[in-house]
Design a protein that fits this description.
8-stranded antiparallel beta sheet, alpha+beta, about 45% strand, globular, 5 helices
């Protein structure tokens, strides 16, 4: 028997989103400061830079987390390694290296509460039933998901699309029905959702954070001629062609990643 107090009923805490058994906890004011950090935290809070955590209520089911994401758990909850042997471990380690995600992701099952590490990034809950065929993620976005969701590695259709598009050659693909939690540099409210029906989306830069695996990704000149590309100032653009969905951030993912490292 357990009881969790001063968390969900705390007047400084709000639940900003909830899907299935996943809840996003946001701290309206960060009180864990001292005289050297109070000013920075105050202005950060005014700009919606707040501490957030993902809380998972386990009701006899199982969830997969990014390695090292768990902060605490209470109740009859056990952690299991998603490894079936040495060969499986080596294979998942290699997959993790090429996707820049943790290859071996721990699973937690049972009955209780699972709380993930706090983050100042935005946590986004996506329902895979709204993504027919699955979802492909940009590097570093995966945080947690229901274990019934299948994880696969998808490769770019050609090497030039990765090199010229300033993207990785491999990405994590999630397939099935369930909820997945993503850790994003921008909030869900600022993500532009593009739905393509046998059409084309051209993006100048690394702004797509997630897309349907049914879309063909290539890198092409912004105009038909090199001279035209030079005049337009765009050069090469990322092209998503076919039928599916793309989530676009208003800022470049890699630029935000570099900025976050300088702020640490």
């Amino acid at each position: 028997m357990y009881e969790v107090k001063n968390l969900f009923e705390n007047d400084d805490v709000r639940i900003v989103d909830k899907k299935s058994n996943m809840s996003i906890v946001e701290y309206m004011t960060d009180l864990s400061v001292d005289i050297t950090t109070a000013q920075t935290v105050y202005f950060a809070n005014r700009m919606n830079v707040r501490k957030r955590q993902l809380a998972i209520q386990l009701d006899g089911d199982e969830y997969t987390l990014s390695a090292g994401a768990m902060q605490w758990m209470v109740g009859n909850v056990e952690a299991v390694a998603d490894v079936k042997g040495v060969g499986d471990f080596l294979g998942k380690t290699i997959k993790g290296a090429v996707t820049k995600e943790s290859g071996v992701k721990p699973k937690y099952r049972g009955n209780g509460v699972l709380m993930l590490e706090p983050t100042y990034r935005h946590i986004i809950l996506e329902d895979l039933s709204q993504w027919p065929g699955g979802i492909v993620l940009d590097d570093g976005l995966f945080l947690a998901c229901e274990s019934i969701i299948k994880q696969e590695i998808t490769m770019r259709t050609n090497i030039s699309s990765a090199v010229l598009g300033n993207e990785g050659l491999f990405n994590l693909k999630l397939v099935g029905n369930g909820i997945v939690a993503l850790e994003s540099y921008v909030p869900r409210e600022e993500l532009v959702e593009i739905n393509l029906q046998n059409d084309v989306l051209k993006v100048d830069g690394n702004f797509a954070i997630a897309w349907s695996p049914s879309l063909q990704f290539t890198v092409e000149k912004s105009t038909k001629s090199l001279i035209g590309s030079g005049i337009s100032g765009e050069g090469f653009v990322n092209v998503y062609r076919g039928t599916g969905k793309v989530l676009l951030a208003p800022v470049n993912n890699q630029a935000m990643f570099q900025r976050s490292k300088t702020m640490k």
